[in-house]
Amino acid sequence: MKLYTAPRAPNPKRVRMFMAEKGLSADAIELINVDLNAGQHKLPEFVSKSAMARIPALELDDGRMLCESRAICTYLDALYPQPVLMGSTGEQRAFIEMTDRYVEWYIMLPLASWIRNTHPGLAVLEGRQFAEFGLHQAPKFEAGVQWLDQQLSKQAWVAGDAFSIADITAFCTLEFARLVKFKAVDKGFHHVARWHAAMAARPSATAGNE
């Protein structure tokens, strides 16, 4: 298998962290970096693999492509069920998926809109930025982090008492928030800050940075 990825981009990092937590190395999945700033993801040879010109993209041994982070992780979880990151029972899997989607929709999405429309380093990817719209997403992102802080005031991990894919998604999102100099502790989100420190100490935390 081949994983098309890009250093430090949040969604590829989600998959790389998931792989690291599963103990998967380059021996199991070949890593191919795609230079986003150079527009490599828009070249015909890549678009033929990923119709939406998005990464990450996992090329299976039979040539088929999986092109969504959650779908890639679901596939890898089926191949490598240990350690458990997506729940062992139907009930656990449902609640973890619900929480993971909350993180995607109410934290990651507004943050991405904020950064993509205001950060000068992403102008080359956007073509045209809408700063007013981007800044309008900032309080929505912060509201999502407030919800996360409330979650973590009641439990050790994002989706409950066990580490899961929802923690990976949330961590990669907050790492991306460094681009707007967001720090949970500066905003009084002390439960998020505690959890973030625990996440940063995991060996998988640096996966996807290189």
Task: Characterise the protein shown here.
The chain is of the alpha+beta class. It has two domains: 2-79, Glutaredoxin, CATH 3.40.30.10; 90-204, Glutathione S-transferase Yfyf (Class Pi), Chain A, domain 2. 51% of the residues lie in helices and 6% in strands. The mean pLDDT is 94. The protein is globular, with a radius of gyration of 17 Å. α1 runs antiparallel to α7 (165-176).
CATH-defined topology of the largest domain: Glutathione S-transferase Yfyf (Class Pi), Chain A, domain 2
* Order of helix and strand elements from N to C terminus: EHEHEEHHHHHH
SS class:
alpha+beta
Strand content: 5-15%
Q: Estimate the helix proportion, in percent.
A: 40-55%
What is the end-to-end distance? 20 Å
Based on DSSP secondary structure assignment, what is the total number of beta strands?
Answer: 4
Quickly describe the structure.
This protein has eight helices and four strands. By secondary structure, it is an alpha+beta fold.
Tags for this entry?
210 residues, single chain, Glutaredoxin, 2 domains, Glutathione S-transferase Yfyf (Class Pi), Chain A, domain 2, alpha+beta, 8 helices, four-stranded mixed β-sheet, 51% helix
